[in-house]
Protein: HTH lacI-type domain-containing protein
Amino acid sequence: MGIRQLAGELNLPVSTISRALNDSDEVRAETRERVRAAALAHGYAPSKSAESLRKGRLTSSD
Structure:
């Protein structure tokens, strides 16, 4: 399950899901817990390429 599917299931914007998973104070604690619980229940894992982009390190599989 990807972040968009998780957002659709929880009826929340993708940006809120992302902020919640990154423990942002911009998201209420109750919402962060709800997002984390759903992510855990559905086996959500961040995509490796998205994580690399966020960290500023691109890797090639070539």
